[in-house]
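Tryptophan--tRNA ligase
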Amino acid sequence: MGRKRVFSGIRPTGPIHLGNYLGAIKSWIQLQDRYECIYAIVDYHGMTTPYHPAEMRANVRELLIDYLAAGVDPERSILMVQSAVPEHTELAWILGTVTPIAWLERVPTFKEKAEQHPDYVHLGLLSYGVLMAADIVLYKAEVVPVGEDQLPHLELTREIVRRFHHLFGVRIFPEPQALVPQDTARIMSLTDPEKKMSKTLGPRSLIALSDPPEAIREKIMKAVTDTGPSGERMSPGVANLFQLLKIFGTEEEYRSLRAEYDAGTLRYVNLKRTLADAIIRSLEPFRRRRAELENDPAYLERVLRDGIRRARAIARETMAEVKEACGLLRDEPGLGEAGVAAAAGSKAAGEQAPEAVERR
Ligand code: ATP
Ligand code: MG
């Protein structure tokens, strides 16, 4: 029995930020020892919100560099690009035929994105959750390390799996579980701290792992707070900064600034200066590794080729089972004569064919 599988992905919609790292990638790295992990650059998902085709390939490359620089290890994990493994969309189509539209209309990210881009509400956006379900179950993944915003998608995935099994009378897929970090499942935007930090909310609202030190300092200094400690509940902007300080600062920095806040004497400029220094310090090794990888296109290509090949081998196996269960033609080399003949009910295809038709 092989190791259990993990699947997760990020949209190539811009450089990864602290939310992506703390919500997802940090867990990805920890899981690499115990699981067979597949980490995807989900470019088809990237197409569901407005984007520039001319930037897509560069974004995919940058995201690959981000993964590697953050510590995803291609020797242990599979790094791949969604559109390079056509089984993702093939399976999404099939799962789409068992997914009631009402399930998709109530997914919160659908509603949010539809509000954000009212001129860009299309079938692909509605069926985002079906494609995501396909991404996960194609590899029979059991664990999906993600931020909190993805929980409804995981619930939907489990519902789709149950319905597929029920309708076709099979048990092919595990019901995947989300793995959400305890304290960092939802990092908030710096400019609008009621919303989560997101790549598509613009560069000022986030700290990218690849941001140069001056940019990090400037953005933290401009982060939205409030007019000062008021003795009431901490405002979301300040809470977000303290949360980041807890992760990136020293224990002493956190403890003393928090004590000042509680005493009502904290000047936010001091909190921000300390936090900016701490983040800059912590991201230094990432920036160094990133610069090395930028200069090694041959290595990047090797990593992707290898990852796509390994992913595809798993994907093909699952699709053979799925097609069998659904009564579709088998995926034999060049659509093997036996498969086609079987579908046509021809006897010329040999003894196997008619029996195969009946079994379906
Ligand atoms: P986009 O705006 O393009 O949707 P995003 O920042 O939301 O970008 P995704 O590619 O949608 O990033 O998500 C990648 C992973 O990062 C997911 O597992 C998601 O849950 C996680 N994630 C995204 N934003 C945050 C956040 N603010 N806090 C914690 N986790 C996050
Ligand atoms: Mg998102």
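thats it. The longest helix spans residues 297-326. Residues 49 and 116 are 9 Å apart (CA to CA). bye
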